[in-house]
Each structure stands twice: as structure tokens, then as C-alpha cells.
Automatic annotation (TrEMBL):
This is Muropeptide transporter. InterPro entries: AmpG_permease/AT-1, MFS, MFS_trans_sf. Signal peptide: none annotated. SUPFAM superfamilies: MFS general substrate transporter. The keyword Transmembrane helix applies.
Length: 502
């Protein structure tokens, strides 16, 4: 088999869909809710909070780089496959143990952001936002690895991914609209504390679930030991992050980087570096036998395996996944500041992000989850790119309309439907590229790399808007979503190499 043979799993429609696992859907709905609640709190809501405190747009754009943490999750994803959390793992198993630690990390980070809601120190705000992003990402790594292990095929993935994204996007809407309404009523501290309380609710659900051991008497000792170990891990993580952050900020200040610095060329240079490194290493990786140290390495082996299986076609895959969600990521951080500048209040934005956004997103996710069990992945990817682009173009349309809450609902609905539809299709596609031997690490790598370029560019979004304006910015973001369609004929021919073929 060659790298460009037609893969039946992706190019052809699935066979008769497998029976729906409703218990699995309910479980992944809860896990999606747990991961979705914090996301807006270190992205969109944080951008509006900084804007309310008079932080300049370019610096708000820099804060978008907090979202780079999920793109770098491949750095620590192998730890989740290799190590277990003391206490929790003894009763709940390795995957759930990491999920429970991450839940505690999310709760403490949100409380810390609430207590520093005045943003008197932007360095502290950045520290706690980074910690929130880290623990949210850790929760996603563990949950995604478990999902791929439990549901390995396209027709099984569709309903589970839909349920997971329903929970995820429902939580994002609850956090986004709820936080804005609470902030308008009682201030940012109240808003972050409320979301912290809501984000902690899945923890007792996980704690009450049946354990991996038969003896229920192991539950309480496992919980106590796990909580103590988690406190120590969370404190150590915060200390290490603070030191790393101080070094980065000091280096940036020493290099003269400030709000007036044009960072776009540097960002684009950083985006090109991974492609160059991969292209240079691929010939050696392709020649490596099964017993080569680089393929057996616990740290690098899962990633080397991906490039060994796909060869130079991996570069095509990486380029595609970097572009596919580009438009949505670019629009995420600056869409709300733009809407606020148009004259809409926080309450109006919050109402649009509640029922309207939730319904539109749920319909998009559900429709994609149903269609992906019946049609080929290439057609689904093309349709996802189209509806995502339309959602971005909707912000350009909104800017030309008089201030009207109804118009805001239409633009928000189009954006969330496209985002939900494209997101569900994309998750299934990436899951099918993963080697089941390394589900956590390889899925973390793919999703991390998928958002590396978009989030690097989104950090320079404020600078770009200053140069070309909001209208051209959202036209550009929508066009970039459509560019990904060019890759689909090539993707339809890509198949991974096997040991037998080698």
C-alpha cells in the first residue's frame, strides 16, 4: 500500500450504522459540559473583561495566545497515557483519575481569576488564565483518549461526538451568556465565581460513578488520597507556570515587545517552523524499523508513529488541519469586541449567546453527527467548511445593519450553526486518523497542531484589525475556511502505511 491509496474508511460512506450507545452519549455529554464551561472564561469573556478595564486592543489580542496551551498539549499528553494520579486511579482508573484532577484544577483557577477580576496586574491575570487553559486541556486529553478507545469506528464516533459537543457547546453558551449577564448585574468577580461553582458540578458525578475495582469500600480512601495528591500537583503546576511566565515576559520586555509592536511577521515565521522540522525529519523516520529507539520511545514514539505511517502525506494532513478551523478561531476572540463596538450591550450579547447560540450550535452538531454516519467524510468536510465560512461572513453583514437585537440573533445563529457543524465533522475525521495504540497522545497532537496556526494568528488579530478593519478581517477569516476545501481530493487518497506493507 502507498501513502496515496484510497482509504475506504474516509472516502466511502459508512456501512449500516452501529446501534447508538445512549449511556455513552450521556456520559460524554457530561464530560463535554465539564470541558466547555471554562473555555469562554479564558477566551471571549476574558477579552470583554479586559476591554471593560481599558486594556488596548493589541494587548487583548496578545491574551489570545493563552489559547495556545491546547495546541501544545502533545507536550504533556504522553504523561496521561503513562502515569496515574495517586488515589484516584486506584478506584476510578487512569483516565477518570486524570479527569478528576483536571476538574479540581479548573475550579481553583476560576476562583483565582475571580479574586483578581479587577485586572490590576495583567501578569496575574495571564497566569491564572494560562492555568485555567492548562487544566481544561488536560481534561480534554483524558476524555478524548477514553472516547477513541471505547468507540473506534466512524459510525460509532458520530453520535458520541455529537453528544460530547452538545455538552461542550451548551456549557460554552452557559458560561458565555451567563457570565456576561452576571457581570452586567454584579461584576466580574460574581461572574467568575458562579462559573467556578458550575464547573465543579461534574466532579461529584465522576466521584459517585462505579469504580474499576469491585470493592466499594475503596472509594473514600481513593478520594481522600486523590484530593491530597491533586492539591500538591496543582500547587506545583502553578509555581512552575509562574516561573516560566516571568522568564517569557522578561524576555519580551527586554526585546522591546509592547502593544505597538507588529508581531505578525514573527508569528508567521513561528508557524512555518514546524513544517520545516517535520520535512527534515521525515526521511529518517520513514526508514526506521519497528525496533528503532525513536519508535519505541515513550515520549516521542506516538508522534513518530504518526509520521512513519503517513510519510510525506503527513505534511498534507498537517496543512489541511491547520486551515480547516482557521476562520472560527480567528473570529472567536474579536467577534464580541466588534459587536460591543457596534453599540450592543453586554446583556444583549449575553442573550444572543444563550438560547439562540445554544439552539443553533446543537442543531449544527446534531445534524453533522447524523450525516457523518451516512455520507463520506470528504463530502462532510466540504460542507462543514462552507457553513463555517458563511458564519464568519455573517459578522460582515451584521456590521452593515442598524443596531437590532434581532439582527444580532441571526448573525450569532449562523456563526454557531457553522461552528458546531464543522467542529463535529472535524473531531470525527481527526479521530479516524489516530492509531488506536496511542489514542491520547496522537489525538492531542492532531488537535493541538490543528489550532496552532489559527491561535498564533489570533494573537495578532488586534494588530491585523488595526491595519485592515473589522470587515476585511472577517472576510479574510471566512475565505480561509473555504481554502481548506482545496485539499480534499488529496485527503481522499491518503492511507496509512502498515508494518506488513513496510
Amino acid at each position: 500500500m502507498t501513502d496515496l491509496a484510497a482509504p475506504a474508511a474516509l472516502a466511502e460512506p459508512p456501512a449500516t450504522p452501529a446501534p447508538v450507545d445512549r449511556r455513552g452519549m450521556a456520559l460524554y455529554g457530561v464530560l463535554g459540559f465539564a470541558a466547555g464551561l471554562p473555555f469562554y472564561m479564558f477566551s471571549t469573556v476574558l477579552a470583554l473583561r479586559l476591554q471593560a478595564h481599558g486594556v488596548v486592543l493589541a494587548v487583548i489580542g496578545f491574551f489570545a495566545w493563552v489559547q495556545l496551551l491546547p495546541t501544545l498539549k502533545f507536550v504533556w499528553a504522553p504523561l496521561l497515557d503513562r502515569y496515574a494520579i495517586p488515589g484516584f486511579a486506584r478506584f476510578y482508573g487512569q483516565r477518570r483519575g486524570w479527569m478528576m484532577l483536571a476538574q479540581l484544577g479548573i475550579f481553583t483557577s476560576l476562583v483565582a481569576m475571580a479574586l483578581t477580576a479587577s485586572d490590576a496586574s495583567l501578569a496575574l491575570t495571564a497566569l491564572f488564565a494560562v492555568l485555567l487553559a492548562f487544566w481544561t486541556t488536560t481534561l480534554e486529553i483524558a476524555a478524548d483518549a477514553w472516547r477513541i478507545e471505547l468507540y473506534p469506528t466512524q459510525d460509532e464516533q458520530g453520535p458520541i461526538v455529537a453528544a460530547n459537543l452538545w455538552g461542550y457547546r451548551g456549557a460554552m453558551v452557559a458560561a458565555g451568556s451567563g457570565a456576561l449577564l452576571l457581570a452586567d448585574w454584579g461584576g466580574w468577580t460574581i461572574a467568575y465565581l458562579a462559573i467556578a461553582a458550575a464547573a465543579f458540578l461534574p466532579f461529584p458525578i465522576l466521584a459517585a460513578m462505579r469504580g474499576d475495582t469491585a470493592d466499594a469500600r475503596d472509594r473514600l480512601p481513593a478520594l481522600v488520597t486523590g484530593v491530597i495528591a491533586s492539591i500538591a500537583i496543582i500547587a506545583a503546576t502553578a509555581a512552575i507556570t509562574a516561573v516560566i511566565g516571568w522568564v517569557i515576559l522578561s524576555s519580551a520586555a527586554g526585546a522591546g515587545v509592547d502593544a505597538d509592536t507588529n508581531v505578525t511577521p514573527w508569528v508567521l515565521g513561528c508557524c512555518m517552523l514546524p513544517f520545516l522540522l517535520m520535512a527534515a525529519a521525515l526521511p529518517q523516520i520513514r526508514r526506521a524499523p519497528a525496533d528503532a529507539p525513536i519508535r519505541r520511545s515513550a515520549l516521542l514514539g506516538p508522534y513518530v508513529d504518526f509520521f512513519w505511517r503517513y510519510g510525506f502525506a503527513a505534511l498534507t494532513l498537517m496543512a489541511f488541519v491547520s486551515l480547516y478551523r482557521m476562520g472560527d478561531v480567528l473570529a472567536l476572540n474579536l467577534s464580541k469586541p466588534m459587536i460591543k463596538d457596534l453599540g450592543y450591550s453586554l446583556s444583549q450579547i449575553g442573550r444572543a449567546d444563550s438560547v439562540v447560540a445554544l439552539a443553533a450550535s446543537a442543531i449544527g452538531v446534531g445534524l453533522a453527527g447524523w450525516l457523518v454516519t451516512r455520507y463520506s467524510m470528504m463530502w462532510m468536510l466540504a460542507l462543514g467548511a462552507l457553513v463555517a465560512a458563511i458564519g464568519n461572513f455573517g459578522f460582515v453583514w451584521l456590521a452593515q445593519q442598524p443596531v437590532s437585537e434581532g439582527m444580532l440573533y441571526i448573525a450569532t445563529g449562523a456563526d454557531q450553526f457553522g461552528n458546531g457543524f464543522a467542529g463535529a465533522v472535524f473531531v470525527v475525521y481527526l479521530s479516524l486518523l489516530v492509531n488506536p495504540r496511542f489514542p491520547g497522545a496522537q489525538y492531542a497532537f492532531l488537535t493541538g497542531f490543528a489550532f496552532l496556526l489559527p491561535r498564533l494568528l489570533s494573537g495578532a488579530g488586534g494588530t491585523i484589525v488595526g491595519q485592515i478593519g473589522y470587515d476585511n478581517f472577517f472576510l479574510l477569516s471566512g475565505a480561509l475556511s473555504l481554502v481548506a476545501v482545496i485539499f480534499l481530493p488529496l485527503l481522499a487518497r491518503i492511507r496509512p502505511r502498515t508494518e506488513e506493507a513496510a
